[in-house]
Amino acid sequence: MQEMTHLLAQYGLLLVFANVFLTQLGLPVPAIPTLVVAGALVYDGQIGLAPLLVVAVAASLVGDVPWFVAGRSYGYRVLKTLCRIAIEPDSCVKQTENIFERWGAPSLLVAKFIPGFATVAPPLAGAMRLGFIPFVLYTATGALLWAGASIALGMVFHAEVEWVLVRLQNMGVGALVLIVAIVGGYIGIKSFERYLLIRLLRMVRISVDELHDLLQRETKPVVLDVRSAAARRLDPRRIPGAIAVDIAAPEVHLAAVAPDQDVVVYCS
């Protein structure tokens, strides 16, 4: 136990910085477990609280600022790229847009507590033309709250964290295998869910040429644009004749549609 805690105390700040930075870049490497362990070491006096918070916030900013700049430079294209690589594409942009649309810049204070929001919020803030200074202030404060909550959790449950560390040390190489298996299993499950979603979308998809042909007919399909208001502002292009719809209440626009009329829906 002493050997493991010594290593964690010696390299803890570096591990926290690397873990938080990679998490903010969008990689599926959750930083909360590392921060909880670091919190237990703070309680034992192995790591200083102030340096730990500074490192966590700095790593978060180093990961967030490039995404913010990319959002300001390339707009909605960055969000589309993120959704292609995101491990949870079904909630990637839509949830983030709705939250940011409702709360604006203050939503960055809780962005890191919401799955999928932490990575997408910085480029979205840039695309929405939020000022750089307000962005840094909000996202840094949010990072401080997020890291502080995880560290506090580790300090409160320091005894339980130490028990887990003892068990991991006793397992030796098996502990590394277990951690890799858990992370690999998580990524595998999420990747499979993504595959199922994409396969479902492909099954019900209509091509651009097919839609164009339908729109030339006398009886045209109803085309619904279910993008969020933020998405429509960032990319005002739309299919001619498409009706902007609130996805939470599509029945308002479907009430007058005949049962045998085709309905085509498109989003981000």
Describe the protein in words.
The protein has 268 residues and is mainly alpha-helical. It folds into 3 domains: 2-171, no CATH class; 173-205; 208-266, no CATH class. Helix content is 68%, strand content 4%. It is built from 12 helices and 3 strands; from the N terminus they run ααααααααααβαβαβ. The chain has helices spanning 2-25, 32-43, 49-74, 76-85, 92-103, 117-127, 132-156, 158-171, 173-203, 208-215, 229-234, 251-254; strands spanning 222-225, 243-244, 263-266. A 3-stranded parallel β-sheet has the order 2-1-3, with no helix packed on it. Strand 1, helix 11 (229-234) and strand 2 (243-244) form a beta-alpha-beta unit. Helix 1 (2-25) packs antiparallel against helix 2 (32-43), helix 1 runs parallel beside helix 3 and helix 5 packs across helix 6 (117-127). The protein starts with a helix and ends with a strand. The model has no long low-confidence stretch (mean pLDDT 79).
Q: Short summary of the structure?
A:
It is built from twelve helices and three strands; from the N terminus they run H-H-H-H-H-H-H-H-H-H-E-H-E-H-E.
DSSP helix fraction:
55-70%
Number of strands: 3
Helix- and strand-based class? mainly alpha
Overall pLDDT metric = 79
Q: What is the rounded Rg?
A: 23 Å
In what range is the share of β-strand residues?
Answer: under 5%
- Termini, distance in Å? 50 Å
The largest sheet, given as strand count, sense and whether it forms a barrel, is:
3 strands, parallel
SSE string: HHHHHHHHHHEHEHE
Q: Low-confidence spans: pLDDT under 50, at least 5 residues?
A: none
> Helix segment count?
12
The order of strands across the largest sheet is: 2-1-3
Globally, the shape reads elongated
- Can you tell me the number of structural domains? 3
